């Protein structure tokens, strides 16, 4: 029994211990395999870290290069933006504008050899420039006939010769406030006018003007100092003027403008403030050769002073759905006191030829921005010989002279945007106060000469 138990015990011990010993032998091999795997993983991790480090370095280099390139691009963009901004700001301060007129004109005056027909052009181009928020300037060039302030026309003649282009406008305007404005230079008329022919639309006064207005409606006024002739050794001829007026709505859709003006022309009596100082360009005002009137060195001079009171009124309303403007204009020269009692009618010049007046209307409006729009107008005017300083008066009515009267009929039609046709017919009488000598058909002294003038225009603005 004892030996059997012993054998059984050894069997048990052998059966239990041997597997344990066998398992103990397998553990190191598994650890070795695990250690090998860990080493492989460590090698891969090290390789990955090295690759990431190299990639990060490459990225850093590329980022630095990109940053440098971006900085260069930014500098270039900023430079271009600044340049563009500078150019845009410079360009935005300028507004260019111009117009071209082609005219066919027929003139027929009694006691001349024949009627005259001619084609003429007028071209004007210029700009307005904003200096700052309150100051602007305008400069414009225009065709013209030498130094004639009353005409910017050029006749198509003289074997296709070049046509003159002269300085037509050059002024600065300071808008000191909403109410006050100062203008200096060669400017547009700074005072309110009607559609009468007291003033030529091509004349641009030269000097200084101060204007005031209460607002878009209400009281307005101005004071003006304009140069007429500068002389080195004698007094300068000039015009000192003032205007006071009122503009307002009297009913719904009806606006009235009224104004009173006074224009004192200095150093004109006894002087020759004409175009080119030529007596031929007195445009109807009374002349004299009297040495007690004409200044030293001037053989033919103006016989009168010109201190003119001007009253005007205008009503703007509608009739049958279309604009209607009616005006009245009156002027009187309080200094037209020269008289010449000679028996020769060419030398006789009575005193008191001092009054001018005009009435008229315009119905409709041929707007350059409204195709197929139209207007008609009519004016009647009478200008005695010394009622107005003739350097201002219209160059077409009564052949551009004082001492005349008559009617003017106008029509205008807008074909398309900025393209308009005009027809104007002058039915006038010249030399109504003082006769003139003519040579056709025979030499004689005549008065009340018929004067007809037809103008057909095509106007393009741009």
Please specify the SSE layout and strand pairing.
Blueprint: H1 2-92, E1 94-109, E2 116-130, E3 135-143, E4 154-155, E5 165-174, E6 180-186, E7 206-213, E8 218-229, E9 237-251, E10 254-266, E11 287-288, E12 301-302, E13 306-319, E14 322-333, E15 355-364, E16 374-383, E17 404-416, E18 419-430, E19 436-438, E20 444-446, E21 449-461
Antiparallel strand pairs: 1-2, 1-21, 2-3, 2-4, 3-5, 5-6, 6-7, 7-8, 8-9, 9-10, 10-13, 11-12, 13-14, 14-15, 15-16, 16-17, 17-18, 18-21, 19-20
Structure in words:
This protein is an alpha+beta fold. 20% of the residues lie in helices and 44% in strands. It has one helix and 21 strands. The chain has one helix spanning 2-92, and strands at 94-109, 116-130, 135-143, 154-155, 165-174, 180-186, 206-213, 218-229, 237-251, 254-266, 287-288, 301-302, 306-319, 322-333, 355-364, 374-383, 404-416, 419-430, 436-438, 444-446, 449-461. The strands form three sheets. The protein has a 16-stranded antiparallel beta barrel with strand order 1-2-3-5-6-7-8-9-10-13-14-15-16-17-18-21. The protein has a two-stranded antiparallel ribbon with strand order 11-12. A two-stranded antiparallel sheet has the order 19-20. The longest helix is centred in the N-terminal third of the chain and has 91 residues, at 2-92. The radius of gyration is 46 Å and the shape is elongated. Residues 5-14 have low confidence and may be disordered.
């Amino acid at each position: 029994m004892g030996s059997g138990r012993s054998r059984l015990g050894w069997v048990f011990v052998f059966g239990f211990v041997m597997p344990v010993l066998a398992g103990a032998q397998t553990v190191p091999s598994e650890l070795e395999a695990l250690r090998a795997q860990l080493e492989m993983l460590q090698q891969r991790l090290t390789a990955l870290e090295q690759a990431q480090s190299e990639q990060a370095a490459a990225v850093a280099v590329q980022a630095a290069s990109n940053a440098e390139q971006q900085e260069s691009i930014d500098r270039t963009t900023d430079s271009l933006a600044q340049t563009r901004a500078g150019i845009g700001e410079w360009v935005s301060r300028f507004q260019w504008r111009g117009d071209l007129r082609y005219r066919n004109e027929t003139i027929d005056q009694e006691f001349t050899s024949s009627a005259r027909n001619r084609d003429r052009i007028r071209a004007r181009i210029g700009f307005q420039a904003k200096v700052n928020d309150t100051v602007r300037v305008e400069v414009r060039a225009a065709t013209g006939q030498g130094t004639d302030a009353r005409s910017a026309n050029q006749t198509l003649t003289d074997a296709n010769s070049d046509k003159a282009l002269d300085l037509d406008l050059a002024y600065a305007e300071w808008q000191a406030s909403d109410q006050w404005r100062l203008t200096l230079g060669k400017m547009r008329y700074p005072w309110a006018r009607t559609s009468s022919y007291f003033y030529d639309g091509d004349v641009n006064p030269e000097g200084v003007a101060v204007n005031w207005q209460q607002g878009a409606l209400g009281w307005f006024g101005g004071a003006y100092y304009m140069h007429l002739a500068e002389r080195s050794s004698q007094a300068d001829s000039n015009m000192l003027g003032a205007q006071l007026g009122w503009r307002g709505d009297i009913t719904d859709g009806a606006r009235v403008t009224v104004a009173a003006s006074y224009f004192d022309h200095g150093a004109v009596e006894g002087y020759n403030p004409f175009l080119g100082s030529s007596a031929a360009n007195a445009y109807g005002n009374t002349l004299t050769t009297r040495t007690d009137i004409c200044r030293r060195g001037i053989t033919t001079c103006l016989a009168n002073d010109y201190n003119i009171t001007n009253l005007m009124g205008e009503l703007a309303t509608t009739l049958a759905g279309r604009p209607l403007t009616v005006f009245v204009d009156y002027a009187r020269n309080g200094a037209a006191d020269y008289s010449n009692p000679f028996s020769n009618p060419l030398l006789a010049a009575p005193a008191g030829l001092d009054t001018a007046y005009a009435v008229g209307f315009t119905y409709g409006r041929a707007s350059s921005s409204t195709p197929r729009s139209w207007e008609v107008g009519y004016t009647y005017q009478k200008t005695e010989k010394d009622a107005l300083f003739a350097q201002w008066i219209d160059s077409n009515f009564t052949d551009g002279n004082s001492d005349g009267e008559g009617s003017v009929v106008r029509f205008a039609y807008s074909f398309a945007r900025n393209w308009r046709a005009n027809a104007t017919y002058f039915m006038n009488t010249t030399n109504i106060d003082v006769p003139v000598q003519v040579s056709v058909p025979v030499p004689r002294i005549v008065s009340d000469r018929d004067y007809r003038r037809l103008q057909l225009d095509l106007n393009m603005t741009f």
